[in-house]
């Protein structure tokens, strides 16, 4: 009931945990209005006002936070909630390396896949600590982003980066050979170098305060096609893995649907203890909160039973062989107990100019995603809307996180996980200490090599079934961003329809006619090829241009038409929670030049009122968090 009265797309960007977050908010809304409808039937009008007041009081009690951002919950509660946050981000985090392995020629090298999983968990935990401590300072988890997957796969699909035929044949791949290692390492080095350079854009935009200016021009008609096309562009990866055994993948999908849709209201009694009730049982909605994880585990166990009973074919040439749990060989025994990711572990990063420009389109998308997440997180945490310096600092630190992700060789960047933002509303605990502990746990997962090795043994059809749900939700959530626009307007229909159709047609034609782009400059040809084969860039760019050039009212564009008032005094926490730690703010408050630094808090600015630029940020952030214009791409 914690998310009652909010849009079901408010806190989700897509990813493994987003499905149950949507269901939780929808369920809470229904439960909130059901007593109201019942009270209106069979009662006299004079009793309606009192009943409405009771419902309002009950709603306030349900939405009361147990622990605020700066509070310190008991250590055992911190541990339990931190583990839950890690499990919520689990699906999206492991999906990214598994998808990248295809483009990196690593589909038959499970040990290296496990190293990539170690690296992304380690960097995600490290970036979470940085964001909560020095960034926006809200309880928000950091992790991989799907926004960079589309331009990455476009980069790796270029003729010079296509995987040799022998790397696709498991019988011909010897992972210990130097020639094989060089095949995937040269691709990963170019990818990580391009990510590092592209992340500099985010660092500059964040710490310079330019993000406030950019958000004036980014509306739902830019966000909607961009997010929708992220989900649609990944259908080939989903179909390829699901097609290895459609029966197993269908079972995985059906289990996730069963847990998340049909069994979400069924509580499971679990033992609990407190000082008042002592040892007792408590209701826990496990199907609602861990539908993705449960679906994977059950299907994985079923595949293991079919493997030991020798029902699935042992011949690699037969259909269904990849559903076996022993396909990955001795990856668990070969993996070391401890793995310590470090910058440059795959060699010295290289830079591809074409890759940098392609990845910049994904970087812009992650910035828009995160701004909406900051406002949603503040709303759920009982905190005032984040001031301009906190948003600038959050985007800048996120850029530093993408720089670290590139340096460590994860093959991806970082963004905020909005599915974990929704968990705050469910648990009623918005303490920063819980998220900090989640970051520590993710770092530990990244260090223990056996854990990631076990994850790589998940059969391909199980992963494919999970992808069918995850990417479907991303696609639908992207479309739902249009709810704030006027869908009866021919302007809205034209911009969205043209952007979507062009984003599907143009890349498809260029892929089928790879030699059609000839400008006379090889580097320019590569840049154009990556940009024009990246669906989300084509759709988002066309939507951005048309939305800002075709005349239209704010209602048609889905933009707010009123000033956002300063309501910081109505929140449970003060703006001081956004101050820098360790007394840095107190030290800087005496310096007059601090007011000119976009990412530094200055008390006089916070107390005397917000500038016009900050009002613009508040209006855009309120709209993003209220209308769900942002989708999570872990």
Would you mind describing this structure in some detail?
This is Solute carrier family 23 member 1-like. This protein has a domain at 75-485. Helices cover 60% and strands 3% of the residues. It has 27 helices and four strands. It has a two-stranded antiparallel ribbon with strand order 1-4. A two-stranded antiparallel ribbon has the order 2-3. Helix 9 (220-232) runs antiparallel to helix 23 and helix 11 crosses helix 20 (460-480). The longest helix is centred in the N-terminal third of the chain and has 31 residues, at 178-208.
The structural class is mainly alpha
Whole-number mean pLDDT: 79
Biggest sheet architecture: 2 strands, antiparallel
Extended strand count: 4
Largest beta sheet: what is the strand line-up?
A: 1-4
Relative helix content: 55-70%
Q: Bin the strand percentage.
A: under 5%
Contiguous runs where pLDDT drops below 50 for at least 5 residues: 1-49, 54-62, 562-569, 605-634
Count of helical segments?
27
* Terminal Cα span: 26 Å
Radius of gyration: 25 Å
Shape: globular
Family: Belongs to the nucleobase:cation symporter-2 (NCS2) (TC 2.A.40) family.
Main location: membrane
Subcellular location: Membrane
Membrane topology: Multi-pass membrane protein
